[in-house]
Amino acid sequence: MRWFWRIAGAALAAALLLAAAGAALPLYAPWLAGTQGVRVGSASWCGPGLCLERVRRGGISAERVILSTDRRVLLLQPVVTLDAQAIGGAGGGTGGIGSGGALPGWLGPVEVRELQIAGLPVDLPPLSGTVLPERSLSGEGVEIAGDRATLSRPGPFGPLKIVVERRRDAAGTALDLSATCAPCSYGSAALGGTVALESVTVAGRLDGEGFAGSVRAGAVEVAVTVARPERIGSMSDTALTGTFRLEGQPIAELYALLGGVIPEAAKARIRGTVSGGGTFAWPGPELTFTPEIDGFSVDGLIGGQYRSGTFRYMARWGPDDYRRRQSGEGTPGWVSLTDLQPWLPAAVIAAEDGAFRSHPGYSIEDMLRAAAENDERGEIRQGGSTLTQQLAKNLFLSGERTYVRKLRELLYAVEMERELGKPRILELYLNIVEWGQGVHGAGHAADVYFLKSPAGLLPEEAAWMAGLLRHPESAWRREYLAGKPDPRRVQQILGRMADLPEEERAAAMGREIRLVPPPAAVGSPTGAP
């Protein structure tokens, strides 16, 4: 807000100089102004009074300044150029004259026409009005009255209304700021949809130390602090660092914000809270977050239909090729968890989710780590999914790599942990997951690759099959069709199988994996939906 004071102070200085110049001949006006640090190109009498052309003092210039015979001072097309120090701090500044500042009795109002302010992070339209004795300026989408300024303009996510008001108290001078985007929307390919919100508001106080306030969207509020900017320029060239904090925020309210892209948010009963804090930096953006989740539970999405019996789901058969498939007890190829033992379940857990037996269906740490890696790469390559989340994706969702899908997947995973339990989740997963192009379920996969039942697999065979799951189609082509199993991946998985006796582990690492040759029609899908 220093620029308010600088404009007003400069206007009064110009008025006093012009009063002195008006008492002398125009010939002496530039000299008189120069003695006070004001440069004047030329002076002459004009219709309204004394006119000075091309006036400049420091970072303030005007094409023309007029001291009229009715004691009014008029600055035409003045330009104020601000520096980073003036913008970066709210307090300080001396010699400023605010709204209601006193004028000499002989001097009338000080007016400006088409005032332009340069050096702000945002572009302001030309402003016109008075700066003394009352500050009242306006322009397209801008209103300034005394110490309060209101700016309405298009923003990157929707119409913005920004209100800035200068406050003075015993602690000094500060600015009360609020910025509201209403309606507000954001969408991207990585997000997987467009989130539309009624409003998002940032509000708080800016002083010499920085900004402290909050961001509010719907019922969700986040406390935010921002250090005083290191540099000021355009929005893309302004360096900001800060922290944020959530306190006991209901998880249901967070999902409610995303109701337009997460249909499950409207029908699921979501309980629990999230707290935690983090840091951010701009440009970047760089973000860290350490959440604390309490009492997270979900119900109302899956019911009891997957506890036993048959069910149908969309199985992936190839790139952009999904087909409805039936599975469950009594269907061809279904294998009970007992008959999947001893080595295949252990190998899959070792390969895909070492903490499967202890986590609540998700791992926040893995999801945040994957998000950080995706941001660094500029694309979604990692998911941080547990086996439960992978099952949710296969049963209920499609395979697109987006953050919206991850959030939907999380709801199903939390409910499945409560509704189905670990053994049933593992049994369902092993029976429906893709093991190669057109190969679904562990029974089918063991038969295709080894002409065995899952119970008859050797540890290294189970480990090789588990290694297919991360990228089943590419591994199917690269290893199975080419007849070149990857021994490094197999040994990694064998090394993680906690229940595998050391003697059997050593023997398995020393044996060669022999695959059944692929069918004659190489590259064609194996099996049928």
Q: Percent helix among the residues? A: 25-40%
Radius of gyration: 35 Å
Beta-strand residue percentage: 25-35%
Q: Which class of secondary structure composition applies to the elements?
A: alpha+beta
**Low-confidence runs of at least 5 consecutive residues:** 1-12, 14-25, 84-100, 521-529
Q: Globular, elongated, flat, extended or rod-shaped: what is the shape?
A: elongated
Average pLDDT across residues? Answer: 82
Taking the sheet with the most strands, its summary is: 17 strands, mixed
Number of distinct beta strands: 23
The rounded distance between the terminal residues' Cα atoms is 68 Å
Describe this structure in words.
The longest helix has 22 residues, at 2-23. The chain is an alpha+beta fold and 529 residues long. It has 16 helices and 23 strands. The protein has a 17-stranded mixed beta sheet. It has helices at 2-23, 29-34, 84-88, 251-257, 264-267, 337-340, 344-352, 364-377, 387-396, 403-419, 422-432, 442-450, 459-468, 472-481, 487-496, 502-510; strands at residues 39-45, 49-57, 60-68, 73-81, 110-118, 127-132, 136-139, 142-145, 148-154, 159-169, 172-181, 184-188, 193-197, 200-207, 210-217, 220-227, 240-250, 269-282, 286-299, 310-318, 321-328, 434-436, 439-440. Helix 7 packs across helix 13 (459-468) and helix 7 (344-352) crosses helix 15.
